[in-house]
Amino acid sequence: MGGQSVGFMAANRNKKGIALDLKAEEGRALARELIRRSDVVVENFRNGVAERLGIGFEDARALNPNIIYCSISGFGAAGPKAQDPAFDLTVQAFSGFMGLNGLPGGEPVKPAVSIGDLMTGISAFAGILGAVLRLRNDPGAGAQLVSTSLFESLSSYLTDASVMYQLNGSVRGPSDSFHANIALYGAFRAKDGYVAIGAGHDHIFKRLCAALHLEAEFPAAYGDDSGLRYRRRQEIREILERRDLSACVPWA
Fold this sequence. Notes:
Blueprint: H1 6-12, H2 25-37, E1 40-43, H3 49-52, H4 57-63, E2 68-73, H5 88-95, H6 115-137, E3 144-149, H7 150-156, H8 159-168, E4 185-190, E5 193-198, H9 202-211, H10 220-224, H11 226-231, H12 233-242
Helix pairs in contact: 5-7, 6-7
């Protein structure tokens, strides 16, 4: 549309921008002038490229003593993969994030949006805000360097799957549209589509059974033992998906 892709418009709406040729001295001179006049600089070149162009953190600090400089990379500023190129997709695969999505026994699934890019943007934003607060509370603190990466951001969102691997080496696979450790918590098949049910707590499961008249199928022990519900989660799913619930739910 108008010579711009939908992806570009989604990421850059309501922004003003210019294009600089940083391989030319004129472009680098304009970049240095922008750094002098700016509060925050964000770059996501491969490690070392900004320094070679003369616009790395040390260069920026010399130009603007109070600059907040945010550097975003694929795999972090240091380490064995620090110089490797990266895309959202490849880091989703390398971090294990993509292996948690999809059907059990099926192929890995990439989320519908570039979740790694988005998560990394949020991490960078949080770091920049922290730097702003530090300079506000201590104006003499000087230039601030914020560093994050696709890999660090995606890895931090693995949460308990990452901890399980570090503790005992177990690798969690995909769990369909259900929570890996909680039952009931997922999308159940209905006659005309799917219904999402989040009944992971005892009292909520009991309320679900009362609302759907399921006391006979699930005696009191199910409502008092989350471990039992987890171990019997497939059986519970089959019972719910076989049952005609149209007469039970108020909106049917």
